[in-house]
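PROTEIN DESIGN WORKSHEET
SECTION A - STRUCTURE
LENGTH: 132
TOKENS:
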């Protein structure tokens, strides 16, 4: 029996054997020119929920050629950690990191959004300006 895919909104740090069906909506490489240190990406699931994913240098050689912005994938097994950096690219409280047993398989899936914008209410923006 096939394992049902997990949803990004249910990621709470309690398990690392996740199976996600996602689209890479943003992909960038961090490092010095000509030599990438790591890949970072934002993935989105069919509900439009997003999470930040990091592929560090030691795993990047394995996955760099297979990761493409806009493509859909089934991804398994990550290290789940708190998304508590000073600069956060997603609102999700956790982020995922590729590990030695991470599996990524490109597959064609319909119904996965290319982008998911979450706009703030205008009143919330005005209220935040008044607090300063």
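SECTION B - SEQUENCE
RESIDUE ASSIGNMENT:
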């Amino acid at each position: 029996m096939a394992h049902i895919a997990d949803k990004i909104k249910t990621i709470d740090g309690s398990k690392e054997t996740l199976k996600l069906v996602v689209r890479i909506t943003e992909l960038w490489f961090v490092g010095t020119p000509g030599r990438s240190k790591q890949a970072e990406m934002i993935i989105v699931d069919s509900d439009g929920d997003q999470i930040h994913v990091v592929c560090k240098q030691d795993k990047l050689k394995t996955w760099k050629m297979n990761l493409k912005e806009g493509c859909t994938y089934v991804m398994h097994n990550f290290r789940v950690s708190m998304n508590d950096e000073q600069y956060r690219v997603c609102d999700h409280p956790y982020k995922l990191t590729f590990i030695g047993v991470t599996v990524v398989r490109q597959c064609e899936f319909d119904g996965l959004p290319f982008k998911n914008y979450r706009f703030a209410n205008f009143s919330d923006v005005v209220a935040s300006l008044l607090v300063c």
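SECTION C - NOTES
The two ends are 55 Å apart (CA to CA).
Residues 8-131 form a domain with the OB fold (Dihydrolipoamide Acetyltransferase, E2P) fold (CATH 2.40.50.140).
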